[in-house]
Amino acid sequence: MKITKRVLTGAAAAAALAASMTAAQAETWRYAFEEAITDVQGVFATKFKEEVEANSDHEIQLFPYGTLGESADTMEQTQDGILQFVDQSPGFTGSLIPEAQVFFVPYLLPQDTEELGEFFRTSKAINEMFPKFYAEQGLELLKMFPEGEVCMTTKEPVSEPADLNEVKFRVMTNPLLVENYKAFGATPTPLPWGETYGGLQTGIIQGQENPMFWIESAKMYEVTDVITCVGHNNFTTAVMANKDFYDGLSEEDQQVIQDAMDAAFEHIIDYQKGLHEESLEKILEAKPSMEVNVLDEEERAPFVAAAEEVEAKFIEMTGDSGEELLEQFKTDLEAVTN
Ligand code: 6CS
Fold it and tell me: What is the pLDDT of residues 189-208, one digit of tens each?
């Protein structure tokens, strides 16, 4: 009788221990991003969450823009380990990781979604060189991906750099982006996202740049009257994890995260096909008077020429490591563009 009881007690204890271990291992991981759940970063994050939850016991809690503050706040929270994952664009990471500003040398990236997808998939600069810059800041770089061609929205038409003269132009808080818009002839004004709509509404600023889906979803057309596309950039973003958290995970969990990132990447490249055009249609439906200008090659020439100055500034800001990265970046691009 006594023996039976002891055996049962032992079995119950083992079961309880197993249950508690499972509970301890099945953690909830917090992931913040800079857009709404229905925007590109939100669609990426949702796919990542679905994949992690389907292939592990972990849960992902998503925090869209506005729930935890501005981009600078979510970066701090990730570095402090309060958040496990963050999506932050190099547009805001530029001061922390100067090399990430390479994305703001104009006319480097192609606009074709297929070519871009292949570039981000295969680039040595992105997949082998960037992670160490992020690691120095306590971050594990998990994935970089494009979000769409960047166009300007202004109050008045822009067909040449002179039209940007004295236009206070909102840019993300990134020193090279400031140089980019100086070279384009504007007066760049770095601001966090939260101050952009109000700044345009009150006239403190008169222009800003963003991909078409964001111009539509953030209703930039309500506070500006002209969209101008000069083909100078494609919005890039980056998802990273707190490095201590990531390094402390089992190999199995790290693999679940990597696989989920790969799946979310393929999903977001696919999702973006036609998104620019669909978003533009919605803008014109909401505001038929919106003027949309896509500058031709001749009109783009002075903007293209300005890129040289910005590239020189990038090298001045980042030295040898930046120069080496830029060279690799160009080599990787050549391999995927026609
Ligand atoms: O311009 C910005 O600040 C915002 N643009 C996009 C496309 N995503 C988030 C970012 O905060």
Answer: 999 999 999 999 999 999 99
What range defines the domain where residue 53 resides? 10-147+236-274
Q: What does the pLDDT average to over 325-330? A: 98
Q: Is 210 in the pocket of ligand 1 (CB under 6 A)?
A: yes
Is 3 a member of any domain? no
**What pLDDT sits at residue 104?**
98
Q: What distance in angstroms lies between residue 193's CA and the mean position of ligand 1's atoms?
A: 6
SS3 50: helix
216 lines ligand 1 (CB under 6 A): no
- pTM value is 0.92
> Same structural domain for residues 187 and 109?
no
Going from the Cα of 12 to the center of ligand 1, the distance in angstroms, rounded, reads 53
Decide if pLDDT at 5 tops 70.
Answer: no
H helical segments located in the chain? 2-25, 40-55, 71-79, 90-93, 113-122, 124, 130-135, 175-183, 196-202, 212-217, 243-247, 251-271, 275-286, 297-336
Give yes or no for residue 183 having a pLDDT over 80: yes
172 phi/psi in degrees, rounded to 5 = -65, 165
For residue 147 and ligand 1, the question of a CB distance below 6 A is answered with yes
Checking if the pLDDT of 13 tops 60, the result is no
Same domain assignment for residues 178 and 246: no
Question: Do 143 and 112 share a structural domain?
Answer: yes
44 CA distance to ligand 1 middle (Å) = 15
Picking from 161, 143, 144, the residue whose alpha carbon sits closest to that of residue 152 is 161
